[in-house]
Amino acid sequence: MNWNLEWLTQAMEKQPGKVSCVVKTLHTGKSFSYAPDTVHSSASVIKIYLMACLYQQAQAGKLRLTDRIVFRPELIAPSAGVLSYLRDMQEMSVRDLMELMIIVSDNSATNILLDLAGMEQVNGYLEGLGLEHTRFRRRMMDLEALKRGQDNTTTSAETADMLERIYRGRIVSPEACGEMMRTLKNQQSDSLIPWHFDEILPEHSIAHKTGGLSGVVHDAAIIDGGKEPFVLCFFGSGVEVPAYSRLMQDASLRIYKQINEE
């Protein structure tokens, strides 16, 4: 394995704004990081953490994944997803709302689930996991809260750690982690880390979650294919989104080739 990633440090240093990266192989434990503890606006990456908390609440008997939730109008958010466009559906199961939250990053589904779980309860769960910087402070697309400085935050280090725990079956239960991995592998947005992998890896080999706002673009992934699975997180805030997205695409492929070379 060629583990010289100095080229990645140099590429990250050339990017404007705040950029972070974590790479960690899951068999050999080799790792690389660039500004891993930089705190970013989480955008939709924080939905991974809400999904984990909901599985924990289900295990504790606080809810059932089959419970059907009635949509409250004030929780319907614009932008990402499908619920805001549906006219004839008023309720959905917790499980299906989680699927929408992850695979199409549905903001309305996220708000409904965050309201169900309780923001304080979710943050208490995150604190209990030992996460210092990952917190919910607002609902999705609550721009007024954002103007007041209330933003959801995380770091590439904490997100990489969370993904590794899910991969190893250490969040809630191995069964819950298996379900979370399956959902993350079904994400429909494949324009960042997975961009070059269609002809290299079988379908559904990458478990990941993207996030984006104005000047913000993230992707947090487990590349679960090839000889050596690995966690790969790229976070960018205040960046030139097209340029940083291209860096993510090309660097992801190069990292994969280095890790999996003969």
Description:
It contains 9 helices and 9 strands. It has one domain (6-260): 3-Layer(aba) Sandwich (Beta-lactamase). It has helices at 6-13, 47-59, 94-103, 107-117, 119-128, 143-147, 156-167, 174-185, 241-260; strands spanning 18-25, 31-34, 40-41, 68-70, 91-93, 153-154, 206-213, 216-223, 230-237. It has a 5-stranded antiparallel sheet with strand order 2-1-9-8-7, sandwiched between helices. A hairpin with a 6-residue loop joins β8 and β9 (230-237). The chain is globular and about 50 Å long. With 262 residues, the protein is α+β, with helices and mostly antiparallel strands.
Descriptive key words:
262 residues, alpha+beta, Beta-lactamase, two-stranded antiparallel ribbon, globular
